[in-house]
Amino acid sequence: MSGQTVPADFSGHMLDLDEDEDLEVFSKNTSLADGSPMPNSPSSMVNQYRLEEDEEEQQDANAKDIFVTVDNPESHVTAIETFIMYRVLTKTTRSEFDSSEYEVRRRYQDFLWLRSRLEENHPTLIVHPLPEKFVMKGMVERFNDDFIETRRRALHRFLNKISEHPILSCSQHFRVFLTAQELTSHKKQGPGFLSRMGETVRAVANSVRGLRSRPEEFTTMQEYVEDFSNKVCSVDKVTQRIIKEQREYLDEMRQYGPTYTQWAGSEEELAEPLKGVAGCVERCSKETEEQIHHLSEVLVPALHEYVLCAETLKAVMRRRDNIQAEFEAKNEALASRKVDQEALQEEVDALADRVELANNALKGDWSRWQSSMRTDLRSAFISTAEKNVEYYEKGARPS
């Protein structure tokens, strides 16, 4: 059966932020013209923060020299599988690119290939996570519009996070991903299965052996990641539970409102207040639906993205520890004088350099990741706060 292309149509800290930095938004030195303090309403605080956020985004955009867009998903049907292909558009001013614009088609597996190559070549850099591979229990709805759009946005985020990274954006694999019409030949150039399996076995062995002297800064980093993971996972779960409860509340309001309208038809003296209640319920239903949509489209994706980031960070920490564990093991063997001293000394020196490079890479990426995480989550939280203010203001407004 030949491949068939079908357009995918769309219908329709807790984060350990510095305390003073967090409180700053609530203590802006705002005052009226006469010098008296200006009251900080929720709306005014949100708008002030939104203005600062827009200025930061504009500064970031001015500094970029590579822009990537993921769009136009298409369903491809073959005799053995159905999959989605996404268009990846790139515009750049970088000299290492032969052209300033590229257009290629990529499927989810291609994004997985890129991420694995980046992790393989930069084991202690923080490579932004991809959305999870779809689970079997949801296979029936795998290619519905909402799923495709959610994945498209996540893939778009993934590529743009890489394009903004000072090291990963210069990767040859990233450039190939953005420019090559076909990736098959490039995928064959990677390490073989047995080679990868050997690295995995060695990594597990090193993890079991453990470390003798992990630097304190990385122990602190690991504790932070564990704490961050617990908190962001908790907030993610509670937010999803709130959305579920709000959907149930919305369903009940939609059944509740028409009852008052019907009642008004049989109670002439009560008709006006009954119609008023019906109108109020209808308005609340509409605003609740919008709030649910906002939480689902803005807050939940941001939270879940950093749930995945936490797992990525844990893996990076393990890889750093594995590199140090291998160095310590070789160093101990050298000290025991039971092996070829000269050959092992060279290997120990090389491993010492590798440990230093790994440590420096992670330390540099750590501060960059924290800054990005705080910007992303701050934006999601402020946007949600803004929507909550709007929701309650509209709910309290008389009809």
TrEMBL record:
SMART domains: PX. Residues 26-60 are annotated as: Disordered. One of its GO terms (cellular component) is phagophore assembly site. Residues 36-45 have a biased composition (Low complexity). Pfam families: PX. Keywords: Coiled coil, Protein transport, Transport. Residues 313-361 form a coiled coil. Residues 64-185 form the PX domain. One of its GO terms (molecular function) is phosphatidylinositol binding. GO terms for biological process: autophagy of mitochondrion; endocytic recycling; piecemeal microautophagy of the nucleus; protein transport; reticulophagy. The keyword Transmembrane does not apply. Belongs to the sorting nexin family. This is Sorting nexin 7. It comes from Seriola dumerili.
